[in-house]
Amino acid sequence: MTSDSAARSVSSTSGGGRRVGILVVEDEPTLGEAIAARLRAEGFATHLAGDGPSAVRIAQEQAPDLIVLDVMLPGFDGLEVCRRIQAERAVPVLMVTARDDESDLIEGLRTGADDYLTKPFSMRELIARVHALLRRVERATELGATAAHGESAVGTGFGPGTSTPRAPRPLRFVAVGGSGPRVLEIDPAQRRVRTGAGREQDEAHLTPTEFDLLACLAGQPRTVLSREKLLAEVWDWMDASGTRTVDSHVKAVRRKIGADWIRTVHGVGYALEAEPAAEEPLEPAGR
């Protein structure tokens, strides 16, 4: 799938006919203009800011649907921009950084960024990430509306078994192998993940991309999914040059939920090394 065909999977207009707006925050004028021009070619309304203060001001005035945000900015940096914007209104943020340091990426995610892209990057990959984030907003909105009516989709939102409504319930998996019972719980409606042994569970804070990747693997547990298939399902983008993106996100998910939940099949792809947990029986009334 090309980035052009991926673009068609997300409309560049809102339900009310308004063009989806994207704020590009980049202090290099040439790069900023190039990103904005490519987004306009995809059908989006774009706004451009070159420093921290103007980024916050334009975000307040224009209320963009998504922000492409560079970390290194004059005035104050992208992390502070993200904090100030998210404090006023939740908006998906794609953080762009020239540094590949893990602590920088983690700090960006903690301030409210949803995904990250490391320079240098291709416009093709940036556009794919933008469309992926917008799809997640649509998907989360639909799941939230369904859950508000007392229903949710069966499954994870990927693969078969996602269309039959029933009472909302997180999906539970048990680890295959290893020592002692370990549980992985995925809640598609609230987009939350918990892991632990027995009844002791900790929440894993995944980015939207990481959640969708894990959910995709959980849709077919113990089945090896190729990097190309994961790229197509999660990013809606089929291109062998993007498989390194899959690898980096698998690494990030493992760091947060535990390395042995996801098995690597060298030269092929990845599999969730878990089985669906048995339904827990209801306790008798009066106990």
Task: Name the descriptors.
about 290 residues, alpha/beta, 5-stranded parallel beta sheet, 9 helices, disordered C terminus
Would you mind describing this structure in some detail?
Helices cover about 40% and strands about 20% of the residues. The protein contains nine helices and 15 strands. The chain has helices at about 5, 30-40, 50-60, 80-90, 100-110, 125-150, 210-220, 225-235, 245-255, and strands at about 20-25, 45-50, 65-70, 95, 115-120, 150-155, 165, 170-175, 180-185, 190-195, 200-205, 225, 260-265, 270, 275. Strands 2-1-3-4-5 form a five-stranded parallel beta sheet, with helices on both faces. A five-stranded antiparallel beta sheet has the order 11-10-9-8-15, covered by helices on one side. It has a three-stranded antiparallel beta sheet with strand order 12-14-13. α3 (about 50-60) packs parallel to α4 (about 80-90) and α7 packs across α9. The longest helix has 26 residues, at about 125-150. Residues about 1-10, about 160-170 and about 280-285 have low confidence and may be disordered.
SSE topology:
Blueprint: H1 3-7, E1 21-25, H2 29-41, E2 45-49, H3 52-62, E3 66-70, H4 78-88, E4 93-97, H5 102-110, E5 115-118, H6 123-148, E6 152-153, E7 165-166, E8 171-175, E9 182-187, E10 192-197, E11 200-204, H7 208-218, E12 225-226, H8 227-234, H9 243-257, E13 262-265, E14 269-272, E15 274-276
Parallel strand pairs: 1-2, 1-3, 3-4, 4-5
Antiparallel strand pairs: 6-7, 8-9, 8-15, 9-10, 10-11, 12-14, 13-14
Helix pairs in contact: 3-4, 7-9, 8-9
